[in-house]
Amino acid sequence: MSYVALVTLLLLIEYMYFTGQAGMARGKAGIKAPAMTGDETFERALRVQVNTLEQLIITIPAMWICANYFRADVAAILGAIFFLGRLVYRSAYMKDPTTRVSGMVTGFLANIVLILSAGWGVLANLLG
Length: 128
Hints:
By secondary structure, this protein is mainly α. It contains four helices and no strands. Helix 2 (40-69) packs antiparallel against helix 3. The longest helix is centred in the middle third of the chain and has 30 residues, at 40-69. It is elongated and about 60 Å long. The relative contact order is 0.15.
């Protein structure tokens, strides 16, 4: 479970970094809150932050359920794959949003396998 905890911390640090990057882009562009538009770089950074938050609500619980009911090593590996997918997603999105697909698909597939593994583990525990 220590690796799952480590990956969880990495995901939280990554999200904090993305949040900081969005905040810095807002400041650099001079966009005053609560405005959410007006500069393409800020909008991209904000979209990366928000999309990551949307995904983390799936990833983190699924990773811990998978670790608890299926296998902790599988959960940690899939969480790490999601983490790397988010880095690819951000890098691509900041250059050209149309190239973000590989990072998005990587994270999406990791989440699907996490959910399936977690579900399998829970069902096996309930039935077994």
